[in-house]
């Protein structure tokens, strides 16, 4: 319940921020160079940029390469909204994967899945850089146990494009972003670390199909099993290690 209110609050914050930025966005769009786009020789050569704070729904599906005691391959499905404007970026999503544990010291444990909720808002500067923060929740459910956590995150990124000359159409574009995911309420493992995402082409372009790849690298400690046993807790927290996961797949934005 707390997670639901948190995500809802983030969405409200993002939309309020977008509304406040709307007038500034319109002034910039109407008065700046975007108001007078170059006229390509054919409509096929035009690359239109999103500038108005309008949320667009999207879906994503792709494989996930998992470690940390999981089976090595799972599939992730995701749906959410993406808002791209001149000065505001907002994302909100829910996701599911069929990852299950095969090496967690509690076998047999044949079934499992992960659920995710996430929301974030960023401020984008005219140079292409953007910075912001958000909140994410995840829960692992297996045959033998369930555990989850809520985690604040903060970070930013850059929309990068290549052109053969000033004023020419874009030959290539991509978005690179990195968010630092904190341990949050994860008292069992304290997982935290950077989560980097590469999206091609850049989502600021008015397109439907995108390729997205996400790499997460996390530091964690051995699972705390008896929180009231302080000597055991100290021992388990002293046993630290690193882990990673990779998601990649296709995004269709409506």
Write the layout of secondary structure elements.
Blueprint: H1 2-31, E1 55-65, E2 73-84, E3 88-97, E4 112-124, E5 129-142, E6 146-163, E7 170-181, E8 193-200, E9 209-221, H2 230-238, E10 240-253
Antiparallel strand pairs: 1-2, 1-10, 2-3, 3-4, 4-5, 5-6, 6-7, 7-8, 8-9, 9-10
Trace the largest sheet across and list its strands.
Answer: 1-2-3-4-5-6-7-8-9-10
Domain tally:
1
Main sheet overview: 10 strands, antiparallel, barrel
Order of helices and strands: HEEEEEEEEEHE
Provide the CATH topology: Lipocalin
Amount of helix = 10-25%
Please give the CATH architecture. Beta Barrel
Structure in words:
The protein has 254 residues and is of the alpha+beta class. It has two helices and ten strands. It has helices spanning 2-31, 230-238, and strands spanning 55-65, 73-84, 88-97, 112-124, 129-142, 146-163, 170-181, 193-200, 209-221, 240-253. It has a ten-stranded antiparallel β-barrel with strand order 1-2-3-4-5-6-7-8-9-10. Strand 5 (129-142) and strand 6 (146-163) form a beta hairpin.
Question: How would you briefly describe this protein structure?
Answer:
The protein is an alpha+beta fold and 254 residues long.
């Amino acid at each position: 319940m707390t997670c639901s209110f948190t995500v809802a609050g983030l969405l409200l914050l993002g939309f309020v921020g977008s509304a406040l930025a709307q007038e500034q966005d319109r002034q910039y769009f109407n008065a700046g160079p975007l108001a007078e786009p170059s006229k390509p020789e054919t409509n096929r050569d035009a690359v239109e940029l999103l500038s108005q704070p309008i949320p667009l729904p999207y879906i994503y599906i792709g494989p996930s390469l998992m470690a940390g005691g999981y089976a090595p391959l799972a599939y992730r499905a995701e749906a959410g909204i993406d808002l791209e404007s001149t000065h505001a970026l907002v994302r909100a999503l829910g996701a599911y994967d069929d990852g299950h544990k095969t090496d967690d010291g509690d076998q047999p444990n044949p079934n499992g899945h992960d659920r995710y909720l996430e929301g974030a808002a960023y401020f984008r500067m005219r140079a292409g850089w953007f910075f912001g923060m958000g909140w994410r929740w995840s829960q692992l459910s297996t045959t033998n146990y369930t555990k989850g956590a809520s985690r604040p995150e903060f970070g930013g990124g850059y929309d990068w494009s290549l052109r053969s000359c000033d004023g020419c159409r874009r030959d290539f574009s991509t978005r690179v972003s990195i968010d630092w995911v904190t341990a949050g309420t994860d008292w069992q493992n304290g997982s935290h670390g950077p989560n980097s995402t590469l999206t091609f082409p850049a989502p600021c372009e008015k397109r439907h199909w995108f390729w997205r790849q996400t790499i997460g690298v996390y530091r964690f400690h051995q699972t705390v099993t008896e929180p009231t046993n302080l000597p055991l807790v100290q021992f388990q927290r002293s046993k630290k290690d690193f882990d990673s996961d990779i998601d990649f797949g296709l995004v269709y934005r409506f």
